Amino acid sequence: MAQRQPARSIVTGGAGFIGSALVRLLLAETDREVLVIDKLTYAGVPESLKEAGLDPETLASSNPRLKFLKADICDLEAMDRAFAEFRPDDIFHLAAESHVDRSIDGPGEFIRTNIVGTASLLQAALGYFRGLDGEAKENFRFQHISTDEVYGTLGETGYFTESTPYSPHSPYSASKASSDHLVRAWHDTFGLPVLITNCSNNYGPYHFPEKLIPLVILNALEGKALPVYGKGANIRDWLFVEDHARALLAVNLRGRPGETYNVGGHNERTNLEVVKTICSILDSERPRAEGPYGDLITYVSDRPGHDLRYAIDPSKLVNDLGWKPVENFETGIRKTVRWYLDNEWWWRPIRSGRYSGARLGGAK
């Protein structure tokens, strides 16, 4: 399929972990103008766009190709204005509540943002799309970024493919499954040209420290317990965030409207293996006077509804669009640990304010 040549992109959730990685990539490796739309909830960190030219205090940009709009995707009028004024060639929709544990404690916000917000954004995009004509209409894409958790859980063998039936088990994954279905419905019913990606677990720089890998790194550096759910036997397929961003760009440029593409790196590890790997790297990079970091590992009661194993088959993305990951888990996790060691300016204010590392989503 011919490669598109878009000039302007909206990125919702662009101050988040994956969104900010995508924005940095678009500005560094394409000529696009980018409008970031972000509500700046607790996990929206404008400092993640500092190297892209954003002033975290004023939200003004020194980069003429980057604009920032603080807005809620549930606000249809604001979304309509954003489309009308910026006139994008496409939209990458990453804005979402994304933490399983938080969805257990408070599912309502996940339903509002992930389902109602996606519906609002689809309506705004559809209204804008209907006003286009010619090449601009042919070129437009609504790209929805989702998760492998919509597929449920795997046994010891097998992989999720694009045809795997949906079977979500948490409020988070159910809300993302709902948003996926809405996106497909707007394509099938209204003809909106959509692209959907479902990715495995991401990790890397600028990852909000409620998630496993940054939580373990920062707890270890502060000499705190390293919590492992159950026996640590749950398996995840890990994907370096910059590889994910490149996959999103490949889908954006060459993907076929109406199609889904799974993004994964064939890097399966148990949670316990992940934690022990981080401890080993820290033992060599920043030895602890009190002894090995592994001594801090603490087993805690498992998360309710904790899926056993996720693993993605990315063959369609690799074969059809020519994507392949640059990092394997060994190289990516070492880069990640090194980044947190070198960038305390980014994570220290978060740890001392918005999220100190307390457990979320425990069984009631």
Task: Describe what is shown at a glance.
The chain is an alpha/beta fold and 364 residues long. The chain has helices at residues 17-29, 76-86, 100-105, 107-130, 134-139, 171-190, 212-221, 241-254, 271-285, 315-321, 329-342, 344-352, and strands spanning 8-12, 33-38, 66-70, 90-93, 141-147, 194-199, 201-203, 226-229, 235-240, 260-263, 268-270, 297-300. Helix 2 (76-86) packs across helix 4 (107-130) and helix 9 crosses helix 11.
Using only CA atoms, what is the Rg?
20 Å
- Which fold name corresponds to the CATH topology of the domain at 8-208 and 239-265 and 306-326? Rossmann fold
Helix content range of the residues, please?
Answer: 40-55%
- How far apart the termini lie comes to 51 Å
Strand content: 15-25%
Strand order of the largest sheet: 3-2-1-4-5-6-10
Structural class call reads alpha/beta
Biggest sheet, in brief?
Answer: 7 strands, parallel
Task: Tell how many strands the DSSP assignment holds.
Answer: 12
- CATH class assignment of the domain at 8-208 and 239-265 and 306-326: Alpha Beta
CATH superfamily of the domain at 8-208 and 239-265 and 306-326: NAD(P)-binding Rossmann-like Domain
Mean pLDDT: 94
Order of helices and strands: EHEEHEHHHEHEEHEEHEEHEHHH
Explain what this protein looks like in three dimensions:
This protein has 12 helices and 12 strands. The protein is an alpha/beta fold. Strand 1 (8-12), helix 1 (17-29) and strand 2 form a beta-alpha-beta unit. Helix 4 packs parallel to helix 6. The longest helix has 24 residues, at 107-130. The N and C termini lie far apart (51 Å). Mean pLDDT is 94; it is low at 359-364.
